[in-house]
Amino acid sequence: MGHAPLPHSGFLEDWAARLRDAAERPVVGILLRGSHARRAATAHSDVDLDVLVGGSPYAARRAYLAETAGRVTHVSVAARDVRSWVDRLGEPADWAFGLPVTAPARLLWADPHWRPRIDLPVLCQPAEPPRLEELIAMLGKAAAARAAADRLGVRLAVADLARLCPSVLRPANPSVRVSSRRAAFAAALELPVAPVGYRDDMLLCLGLRPGGTGQLWAAAVRLVTGILPLIRPYAGEIADVAGADLADALVDGRLDRYVAQLARPVGHPPNPPRESSPVPAPRAGQWATVPVPDAPVTGVPSDPSGPAASTPARPSRLDPAIAARLRRTADGLVAAVVRAHESGEVLMVAWMDDEALHRTLTTGRATYWSRSRREYWVKGATSGHHQYVRSVALDCDGDALLVSVDQVGAACHTGHRTCFFTELPVTGAGT
């Protein structure tokens, strides 16, 4: 659908002159904003005009219905003090889900003194800082409303929580700029680095998909618990906004424990600590709530010269029933073949020991054992090319794993989507 024209060619000029004459204060500039400035207007779009005036801080809005040749057009006029208008460009837009804004504008008229400052082809507003503290506070409000059986309170709190999620996830994601509320909403839902099920949970919390109070609460908990490990590498940016203690709590696990405390039913005591398998493996597509280390964790060395390992080479919390089915190499490893969940494309092959498998199953983040560095590593912890685990299958011999993932970015360290990008010539009789 093409851009819908205005009622006539001189429509904007006529309205600029009319507004200058009718203004209560001296006018220094008039700008066209919104869908007509973006050349994305439809036949139903209104015309958004900013009238910038001098003097003390001032803001007023007027609405007009202009009828021309049988067609009625809604003209929406915002009168603003020019200084506060300029200052406002340095603040995040309240409709942009915390994302930075680049919105086209068109200057219709300007006082010569102010023209250099307001003749802007695009109006740029910065991103919102990652509002992690507010995100946690909103989860607390939702928990309080849930405990009080206040269903409306839960819905309001989780909707506010969902609107904060993109700003908190922004440091972990590629930069994106938006020009409209619709574009901001689409970008907020499609962030590439986000918890598994993020889009569905966002739509549910925002009230755009039907769901009961229990479903809304579960979605809010999944969002927060899924976001925490993704932003842990950006604790420094959190510290700049919310202070060092919240950033330290994000790193040392206190924040995870606080969220787990909020998630427990009222009057339900915390689970006693256990040495093995504290969390069941998630079903395909689920996001577990256990934090995962975002930096490599040194493992216990094994002796590669020994016989083939029928027992773990390093201490592990893996479920004994699963561990008993593994056939390991001499250094206690099984091969992990990683494929894309949606397409089935083989992405890479890596190695897991019992503990790496345990972490993969209980955190939803693909975790491997590095044979060269002799340490655990989480895919994407340093590169940002995260792997969110959808399912794990063990082969018939117990010596290989098939890991289906949602891959963010490239799987290969060379920057390729898959490690298998080098084709070899096949010259057999069947070719």
UniProtKB/TrEMBL annotation:
Q: Which UniProt keywords apply?
A: Amino-acid biosynthesis, Cytoplasm, Histidine biosynthesis, Hydrolase, Magnesium, Metal-binding, Zinc
Q: Where in the cell does this protein reside?
A: Cytoplasm
Pathway in which the depicted protein is active: Amino-acid biosynthesis; L-histidine biosynthesis; L-histidine from 5-phospho-alpha-D-ribose 1-diphosphate: step 2/9; Amino-acid biosynthesis; L-histidine biosynthesis; L-histidine from 5-phospho-alpha-D-ribose 1-diphosphate: step 3/9
Enumerate the residues binding Zn(2+).
C396, C412, C419
The Nucleotidyltransferase substrate binding domain extends over 133-231
Residues engaged in binding Mg(2+): D395, D397, D399
Q: Which reaction does it catalyse?
A: 1-(5-phospho-beta-D-ribosyl)-ATP + H2O = 1-(5-phospho-beta-D-ribosyl)-5'-AMP + diphosphate + H(+); 1-(5-phospho-beta-D-ribosyl)-5'-AMP + H2O = 1-(5-phospho-beta-D-ribosyl)-5-[(5-phospho-beta-D-ribosylamino)methylideneamino]imidazole-4-carboxamide
Q: How is the cofactor bound?
A: Binds 1 zinc ion per subunit.
Q: Name one GO biological process term.
A: L-histidine biosynthetic process
Indicate the segments forming the Phosphoribosyl-AMP cyclohydrolase domain, all copies. 348-421
Q: What is its quaternary makeup? A: Homodimer.
What this chain does, per the record? Catalyzes the hydrolysis of the adenine ring of phosphoribosyl-AMP.
Q: What is this protein called?
A: Phosphoribosyl-AMP cyclohydrolase
Query: What taxonomic ancestry is recorded?
Result: Bacteria, Bacillati, Actinomycetota, Actinomycetes, Micromonosporales
